[in-house]
Write a structure and sequence with these properties.
This protein has four domains: about 110 residues, no CATH class; about 110 residues, no CATH class; about 170 residues, Sandwich (Immunoglobulin-like), CATH 2.60.40; about 190 residues, Immunoglobulin-like (Sandwich). The protein is built from six helices and 46 strands. The strands form eleven sheets. The chain has a seven-stranded mixed β-sheet with strand order 38-37-44-45-35-31-46. The protein has a six-stranded antiparallel β-sheet with strand order 26-25-24-23-29-30, with no helix packed on it. Strand 20 and strand 21 form a beta hairpin. It is flat, with a radius of gyration of 33 Å. The protein starts with a strand and ends in an 8-residue tail after the last helix. Keywords: Membrane, Repeat, Transmembrane, Transmembrane helix. This is AGAP003887-PA.
Length: about 675
């Protein structure tokens, strides 16, 4: 914005150069330098009557044939840019072609190429200081593995965030902007790189661009952050300087969604389940299948056995899947001589194994392989033509015990039932309408069983991820904000303690009071939510604290168990949705302690006789990080477990049953006998 006088605010179009001089055909317009390679003409007028007129720039002293065209519109069909049409009051963005910059030209003209006539012109002042993008520091690294390379402000509304990493485990996290010395709740959500306001997914070194919503510009904000709305926590941020001179946001900055690479084609094969991407490279075609499949399923794609309709017999396809035993992705060439399962020679038989690369995250499997365009194997392998469209087929189905393709269903959701044709010579053919990551499964993944700690007198307490839809929330029934307690390096186990015994908790949940995301003192409480430090005095009176909190001379509560910060972090992104057991999930984590020389805190708790049967270990400063502590009488844990120090995947129901039997040995005698002959 430009401010004129005390009240008038004018739109900002960049550095003003001046007005076009009219020599004929009614040329008008005010010209601005938007950035190093973009001009903006405000209110352009031209009668459209010249036969061969263009926007024309050059480096000669005056407009002359020694120049070149600035195509308008920038995107056009055909080999030659279109001649200028009539304009009466049009705002026009002109992008200099061929990598040229404003410093490389001396003038802009409306020029008739056929008759070498200058209809209107403006000269560029030498040494013009044009607005430029501003490079900022990287995101401050506070939580959930958030980090990036240096962030850039491309224009007044657009941020470029390279090498973005974030584990995706925050339940309600967004790009967030606002005012003040620190990120706070009075902010505004910023759509992600796809323009969506869904909670942020995980990122693994991606380069993205995001744009501020509505009329908001970088001149209106003090910071950009990744912020969890539900739990009011800052995962990391970068400050916006006040001395900005960046290009205006006139639409010249185009966001290229990361889901559609610039030079790779994409076609939807099965709605919401399977897409194919391809690119021709020399004598090869590189194909990537992107499918929403389970680990016991395959995805298949190839050339139909008959042009004009989908036919399996005679088809040449690749079957791609994840080999669970060998823990790697595979793609195998299949030739289909009949609809029967392979008998070793005939049927749906693998022909050869193909080298692949792959990835699996958020329930989506991506497998990339390459094939020769032309083949010397005329019987089983089909060529990929580049001179015409060809019919293709695709399917999703189950793997058999030998990791071979079993028969798929014949519904339109599992196999192509209509003729699908692809021109493999296409460039930038993006007909994929949806990113498969955006489809949500109707039934969530199976939760992990609750773990237990029995008979242990010393227990470590650290921070770690919640395990997504398999972990904290499905186990407890409570919402999470992306982290939870790991007790003896287990995700929120149920702990059994005995009355009269003393237990030591070695606490490494953070002791930096100025960083809430890394300050998690442990305490023992009657509350299934915790967060004692957030409560009002009236709320505190309804909660009983058993350990980890003391009071100062003025009666204010303060935590006593705040040690150095150690966190189990994702090595890449959160893969909980695709991993069936916690033990396997833990292999995707690594322990990181902020200060190797820092000291843990020690919470010593003697369980008095009056302690109720169920209490909770929780975080003093945040809600919903911990879980249950079962309190039993002396000697009863050994009756439950049979041995001390047992960590098991034993469900709560089984443990309660065992506990009940231990406490009431004569229970079976009280149960009615079944009818005779049962």
């Amino acid at each position: 914005m430009s401010i004129v006088g005390p009240f008038t605010i004018l739109p900002y179009y960049g550095r003003e150069i001046g007005h076009l001089t009219n020599f004929g055909h009614g040329i008008k317009g005010q010209v601005f330098a938007v950035d190093e390679s973009t001009l903006f003409v405000k209110g352009f007028a031209y009668d459209g009557n010249a036969p061969d007129a263009f926007f024309w720039v050059g480096n000669s002293p005056r407009p002359s044939p020694e120049g070149f065209i600035i195509p308008y519109p920038e995107e056009y069909s055909g080999r030659e840019p279109p001649v200028l049409q009539q304009h009466t009051n049009t705002d026009i963005i002109l992008k200099l072609p061929m990598g040229k910059r404003i410093r490389d030209i001396r003038w802009l003209s409306v020029w008739c190429r056929r008759f070498t006539v200058d209809f209107g012109e403006i000269f560029i002042p030498p040494g013009l200081d044009v607005p430029k993008p501003r490079v900022l520091p990287e995101f401050k690294r506070l939580a959930h593995g958030l980090r990036s390379s240096n962030i850039s402000i491309l224009d007044a509304k657009t941020f470029y965030i390279p090498n973005l990493h974030y584990d995706g485990a925050g339940p309600d996290a967004y790009f967030w902007v606002g005012n003040g010395s620190e990120p706070n709740i009075m902010g505004t959500k910023v759509p992600n790189e796809l323009g969506s306001l869904d909670p942020l997914r995980g990122y693994q070194g991606e380069d993205i661009e995001i744009q501020l919503p509505g009329n908001l510009t970088v001149y209106d904000i003090d910071w950009l952050a990744v912020w969890c709305v539900e739990y009011r926590h800052n995962f990391g941020h970068v400050y916006i300087p006040k001395d900005l001179d960046v290009p205006p946001a006139l639409g010249q900055t185009k966001i290229a969604p990361t889901s559609k690479p610039a030079n790779v084609n994409c076609k939807e094969l099965l709605r919401g389940k399977l897409n194919v991407m391809w690119e021709v490279m020399d004598d090869f075609i590189v194909i990537e299948l992107v499918g929403r499949i389970r680990e016991d399923q395959y995805m298949a794609f190839g050339i139909s056995g008959s042009h004009g309709h989908p036919q399996m017999i005679g088809a040449d396809v690749v079957v791609a899947f994840y080999d669970r035993r060998q823990r790697r992705f595979r793609a195998e060439d299949y030739y289909m001589s009949s609809l029967a399962q392979c008998d070793g020679k005939l049927g749906v038989c693998p022909d050869e194994r193909i080298g692949v690369s792959g990835d699996r995250s958020h329930g989506v499997t991506k497998i990339k392989y390459r094939r020769l365009l032309q083949t010397n194997e005329a019987v089983n392998d089909r060529a990929y033509p580049l001179d015409r469209q060809i019919s293709v087929i695709a399917a999703i189905g189950p793997l058999n015990s030998r990791d071979e393709a079993n028969a798929h269903s014949h519904t339109g959701t599992e196999v192509t039932v209509d003729d699908v044709q692809i021109d493999f010579a296409s460039r930038n053919d993006h007909t994929c309408t949806d990113a498969l990551d955006s489809f949500r499964e109707e039934d969530g993944p199976e939760p992990w069983p609750s773990r237990t700690i029995l008979g242990e007198k010393t227990i470590t307490a650290r921070i770690g991820p919640t395990g997504g839809k398999r972990g904290y929330t499905p186990i407890t029934g409570h919402p999470s904000w992306g982290i939870a307690w790991y007790m003896n390096d287990l995700l929120i186990p149920e702990i059994y303690v005995e009355r009269g015994q003393t237990y030591t908790f070695i606490v490494e949940g953070g002791d930096e009071t100025t960083q809430p995301a890394k300050y998690h003192p442990l305490y023992i409480t009657s509350s299934h939510e915790g967060g004692y430090g957030q409560l009002t005095e009236a709320q505190k009176r309804r909660e009983t604290v058993y350990a980890g909190v003391e009071y100062d001379a003025d009666g204010y509560a303060y935590p006593t168990a705040a040690g150095r910060y150690c966190e189990w972090k994702h090595k890449t992104i959160d893969r909980s949705a695709e991993i069936a057991t916690f033990d396997e999930y833990k292999k995707t984590l690594q322990l990181s302690c902020d200060d190797p020389n820092g000291q843990p805190a020690y919470l010593n708790w003697t369980v008095v006789d009056e302690t109720p049967d169920l209490v909770y270990y929780q975080c003093f400063t945040h809600r919903n990080l911990g879980w249950k502590i079962h309190v039993v009488n002396a000697g009863e844990t050994s009756k439950i477990s049979g041995s001390h120090g047992l960590y098991g995947s034993v469900s709560s129901t089984v443990l309660y049953t065992l506990l009940l039997l231990a406490l009431v040995p004569g229970l079976f005698a009280l149960l009615p006998l079944p009818p005779k002959g049962f």
